[in-house]
């Protein structure tokens, strides 16, 4: 990706949406070959063939008889309690066209069966546990007395602690800011309450007026704000971190999916496709890796006629992506088809080409995942194989792990990898998510750093190659994309939700912190007549000295101690934590 490589003459020359569409479109030879076959074998003339706006697929109306003859198949209809779908068991394509056609629809993927029903209460409990990992009540007076002190940052992380840790200047509330440089936050199944934000501002950032709120981008019926009793921990944490760090810059939220799907999809299905549809209309029907458009086996289907469902059509291309997008949601790679992830990864690449920076929290369970019915310790193959997280492993996003100021240390001491044991008052053990992908290989910008890690630290575990853990005794993929890329503080974070002052944390805190710092840097570049930094990984891996290297800690999981933090990049804290001053100097020196 030349537009993101610091040594490229094309650095910062981001593409337009039209240029991206053209680059990913099939060649004229492909379109001509398929069109000729449709005409010669099926009698489908050029006048009957339409090409999608994103150029990725051809469509035509045909009778059942025409389609069956063309594809040498037999179509049938299958119906469940809610809908009817058309499909076939198999179809045939000429050998010379197989390199041009990913798949045909309706086809073997046409049949959609209803998901297994679930207890909504248990789903909501699990959803809550996957957001802000830890939460404890704190006496109001204690927080108010210490909210601006750096002496207690080992007990409670506030914005003053974050600024001291990462060399961030105090904001000028009266500064003029670019109206086109807002920070975007993805939210699903968690919405904020204005009362919580106001209580947080009053306690911790009194320079921010009560009533300050993000701009709402509602996607497919997403609702925000909500009343204080229904506020979610994730939304509260993300906004209470981001708004003060970028202030007086603005924030936007992408509140995704209606009440039904925001619970069901998050826990049982896919992630992010309806969000990506809404910020890039061409993605709604983008075809790659045998996946065209949203997958009804994993993604929400609209209109949704259920009670409380969004009755409109699926939103496509209705919002412009912000320069920065912070995401504190993830799933196990193993929970989603590889081609589903690859198609989605293409879209993260397209956003990077257009100058968008995407930051995703790396997970809170070290090399594993939270316990679930299929795996008591959240790990693969008999509870032993490490579990990397989607979409972190896509090489076109920036994965953010977590660090901690341990008891007795100060903001002037080096941080360590976040790692807390389970036990009262915490429900699950917590450590910075990290490891190696089973879907994506090591990207070029990261290759020397991963090799360097294995030269310094040889993990005491058997490994495998090419993501093939089913036929191996190894625990991790030696040639997989490594995560995280970077890290930031994610423990003992002060927050307010449901009207209470609390301590919380997780990499859910780390991602918006790092994202906010890049938003501040974008603001300075825009003032200087430059563009946003876009996809930052190649720059950071080429200049690791602008980060604070974290060399202490591990990320346990799957019955092991996980990986160890080490000098340089490591699969616990990545390249390290940000230093705003050093990073600003680096990015301001680039075109």
UniProtKB/TrEMBL annotation:
Any single biological process term in GO: proteolysis
UniProt: Ca(2+) binding residues: 549-550, 568, 570
Compartments in which it is found: Secreted, Extracellular space
Any Gene Ontology CC annotation: extracellular region
Residue positions of the active site: 234 (charge relay system), 238 (charge relay system), 508 (charge relay system)
Pfam families, A to Z: Pro-kuma_activ
PROSITE patterns in the record: SEDOLISIN
MF-aspect GO terms: metal ion binding; serine-type endopeptidase activity; tripeptidyl-peptidase activity
Cofactor note: Binds 1 Ca(2+) ion per subunit.
Cited InterPro entries: Peptidase_S8/S53_dom_sf (IPR036852), S53_propep (IPR015366), Sedolisin_dom (IPR030400), Tripeptidyl-peptidase_I (IPR050819)
Record keywords: Calcium, Hydrolase, Metal-binding, Protease, Serine protease, Zymogen
CDD domains: Peptidases_S53, Pro-peptidase_S53
Cofactors, names only: Ca(2+)
Peptidase S53 domain segment(s): 156-590
Name the UniProt record assigns to this protein: Subtilisin-like protein
Lineage of producing organism: Eukaryota, Fungi, Dikarya, Ascomycota, Pezizomycotina
